[in-house]
Every structure is written in structure tokens, then in C-alpha cells.
Amino acid sequence: MSFSDKILKWYQENKRDLPWRGIRDPYKIWLSEIILQQTRVAQGTPYYFKFIEAFPTINDLANAKEEQILKLWQGLGYYSRARNLHTAAKMVVNENDGIFPGTYKELLKLKGVGDYTASAISSICFNERQAVVDGNVYRVLSRYFGIDIPINTTKGIKYFKNLAQEVLHSNNTSDYNQGIMEFGAIQCTPKNPNCEKCPLSNSCVALEKDKIKTLPVKVGKTKVRTRYFNYLVPITRNLENDKFTQLRQRKGKGIWQNLWEFPLWESEKEIDAIEVEKVVLKKFKLDGLSEITLHNENPIVHKLSHQHLHTKFWIIEGDFKFKKCIKTLDLINYPVPVLIADFMKTFKF
């Protein structure tokens, strides 16, 4: 039995019951693939259901407001995926009459769709002979064939793509591609794989040469930058004692582009209430300041891929005259980074 036959047989016997399994609708497969990038299945599944309910068709997604999409995406992180999702939907509707592309080459033209996603959609939905290569596939192929070429180099990416294409199943590309990804996810896991019950154990080079823990190879680690965020949460009241605050929308090319947040002051190190008061009075010009309190004594460390945000939330109370203010009861309607969302869950406005 060939490598691909063993993978296919294992998949048929062990595949998980996932909501996007067994369907060939490219819109739903595309949604699931974008949501599951950098996201565990358990975390991504509820978001998949939310998006399908809110946007049953690609036309619904294309016609939605970006703010609505970002709000639904809140908590998944990597918000560029949501913005690209919206852009790609509009491309399909406006340039292709709402008909999802059916080939690898055409799929690559969509915003946010790269080699892996195009291969997944074209093979799963249209059985095109395109091999998928994600983290799971890299691990399975690297271990089984004993390949120590770093997977995050140009040479490695090209080598593994060619190898994946060579070992594709002869006729059932759709199930095979899903199978090898599933195999890496629940059988050939990153740590402590169950090699004793693995159908590939008799011919796995990594197992034979005791290299399970060292393969696949990945070179270089991205340097993590430490940043110090101070969110200033202004609170004021009207004559009816309704509470109001202020949010600002992030612009530019950051990961939180178009999300909302409280006024932010980024400092070079941790600061105290005296320094915060100076900033409030001079930089943010919140005239009418009466009290400053620190919500969290220890900084909340929010870890992103290339940076760690050491964050404090300062509650600024006073009789402020905002040009634009938001009722605190309406905060829930704004798409915000999960760091802000978590704060709003714990702080009683």
C-alpha cells in the first residue's frame, strides 16, 4: 500500500466530524480555511457558524459593512484575515458575478488567498490535483521521509511543495489532502505523537533514526519587541447620571487597523499616576479631570506574534466635554481588539 493510500485509509477511519466536512461549497470551504489560519479548530468552529449565519452567501458577505465583519471576528486575532475576507468577497461578486473561482490559478487572484488556501479550495471542492502544504503537512512529510531542510526557507518551501505534489493520491485528491492535514493534526502531532499506533511507523525515517523530536527543522526566531501601552479610559456623566466615554478608531497599516480602542499613550517603560496626569492634562487635554485610578496593578501582557504588549488601564474620571462621546452601554457594538474586549468584561462602567 502506497503512502497516499495509507493516509487515505487512515482518514476514512479516523476523520473528525467537522461542520465543513463532506461539502463541496467553495464559499463555505473558503470561510473555514481563512478562519482556521493561525487558529485551533475548537476556537474557530463557533466563528464559522457565526459567519455562515450572518452571511449565508458570498453576496451577503460582500455587501456587509466592514465594521460588522470585524465585530464578528473579534477575538480571533490576525484581523487582516477579516479585511481580506471582505475584499475577496467583493472581488468575487463584482468581477465574477458571484461565482467562486474553481481553479488554483484563479483562486490565487483573490485577496488573502495564497498557495495553501488556493490548493485546499481547488482540491477539496473541485478535486484539482493541487497538493496542500500547511504546518501539519510539513511535519508529516519531514518525519516520514526524514527531510531536514528548514521548512521556513525558500528552498524548503519549494522542496516540500514539489514532494507533496509527487505523493498526491492518484484519483482522490480531495479526501487525501484533507487526510494528510488531519493526520498531522491528531496523529503525527508536534509533541508526543502516538508512533506505536501509526500506520506509517514501519517506513517512517524519523522514527527509525530517532528524529521525531527534531523534525521538521525551522531556522531563526523572530525577535520579540516589548511595548508599554497605557489606555486612558475617560468616564464622564451627564445630568441624568448616564456614563460616557471615548473610543478612537485605529488607522494605518497595523494589525488592529479600523478597530476601536480607548485613547492610548505608549510609553518607553512602566509609568505611574503622576506621569499619567501630566499626559492627560497636556497631550490629551481632558479638561475637568477629577480622579485617576489604575485598574490593574500588574501589567496585562498581551502576546502577539512579534511583540508583547505590557498594558495598563487608567480610569480617568471628570467633567469632560468630548467632541465625540459614546455611551458606555453602547461599547458592546464596537469592534475592538481582544485586549480591550477583555477589559470591558471585567470593568464595571
From TrEMBL:
It comes from the Bacteria. Its cofactor is [4Fe-4S] cluster. Pfam families: EndIII_4Fe-2S (PF10576), HHH (PF00633), HhH-GPD (PF00730), NUDIX_4 (PF14815). Residues 35-186 form the HhH-GPD domain. CDD domains: ENDO3c, NUDIX_DNA_Glycosylase_C-MutY. Its EC number is 3.2.2.31. It catalyses: Hydrolyzes free adenine bases from 7,8-dihydro-8-oxoguanine:adenine mismatched double-stranded DNA, leaving an apurinic site. InterPro entries: A/G_AdeGlyc_MutY (IPR005760), DNA_glycosylase (IPR011257), Endonuclease3_FeS-loop_motif (IPR003651), HhH-GPD_domain (IPR003265), HhH_base_excis_C (IPR023170), HhH_motif (IPR000445), MIG/MutY (IPR044298), MutY_C (IPR029119). Binds 1 [4Fe-4S] cluster. SUPFAM superfamilies: DNA-glycosylase, Nudix. Keywords: 4Fe-4S, DNA damage, DNA repair, Glycosidase, Hydrolase, Iron, Iron-sulfur, Metal-binding. Signal peptide: none annotated. Adenine glycosylase active on G-A mispairs. MutY also corrects error-prone DNA synthesis past GO lesions which are due to the oxidatively damaged form of guanine: 7,8-dihydro-8-oxoguanine (8-oxo-dGTP). Belongs to the Nth/MutY family. This is Adenine DNA glycosylase. It comes from Maribacter cobaltidurans. The lineage of its organism: Bacteria, Pseudomonadati, Bacteroidota, Flavobacteriia, Flavobacteriales.
